[in-house]
Amino acid sequence: GAVVSQHPSRVICKSGTSVKIECRSLDFQATTMFWYRQFPKQSLMLMATSNEGSKATYEQGVEKDKFLINHASLTLSTLTVTSAHPEDSSFYICSARTGVNSNQPQHFGDGTRLSIL
Amino acid sequence: QKEVEQNSGPLSVPEGAIASLNCTYSDRGSQSFFWYRQYSGKSPELIMFIYSNGDKEDGRFTAQLNKASQYVSLLIRDSQPSDSATYLCAVKREYGNKLVFGAGTILRVKS
After folding, report:
1. Which residues of chain A lie closer than 8 angstroms to B34, CB-CB?
2. Angle in degrees, CA A61, A65, A67, rounded to 5
């Protein structure tokens, strides 16, 4: 149980392109979803938290107009990197959890490796 | 002081030995504690979670929690080369929605 599917697994595109990443909880209702970014050999960095039906809460320093998050249902959240540039190249990982402010574990998707040329 | 601290390692153990990974946290009111394993180039995978003081065992893994001393540990018995990975300790604060991750400990199991 607790499977989170993330798609696509890898994206390579030109600078200026917008890229959408989907995160789905397959066998549970994800009341809360999280989006992380990880650069090589560095720690996970939380970008934003989204609760179903609400606007996402962004971490300090993360541009909300650059990284658009939609959490329209209990099983799907999307992250859109708008007008991506080479410095946005990174490993983007979503996670999902049942319950708001819950002590339940977060379950991670397989991640999306984004490369902007 | 970081909110969740782990020794970065690498921690090297021989195959078959017990690997002991430690984590300390600063928020005394923290309620829940998680260990994730992350292989190079992959996303984190949940290994164990623990909420109460004491030990919790699952197969070769044992999580230990001591809230008075504010530390949580993960023991891996009969370590295998496939256990070689980065182990992330994560803590949920008393108040708030998110997990705070440590920087991770690199474990190397040598055959």
Report:
1. 105-106
2. 70
Among the listed residues B60, B67, B63, B10, the one whose alpha carbon sits nearest the alpha carbon of residue B40: B10
Phi, psi (rounded to 5 degrees) for B5: -115, 135
Query: What are the chain B neighbours of A101 within 8 Å (beta carbons)?
Result: 96-97
| pLDDT under 70: residue ranges of chain A | none
Nearest CA to A109 out of A91, A90, A96 is that of A96
Residues of A in contact with B96 (CB under 8 A): 101
Neighbours of A107 (CB within 10 A): 22
Residue A56: the pLDDT is 93
Beta bridge partners of B74: B21, B63
The label of the residue with tokens 């179903």 reads: A52
pLDDT in tens, A12-40: 999 999 999 999 999 999 999 999 999 99
Residues of B with CB under 8 A from a CB of A: 31-32, 34, 36, 41-46, 49, 51, 88, 90, 92, 96-99, 101-104
> Percent of chain B, pLDDT > 70?
100
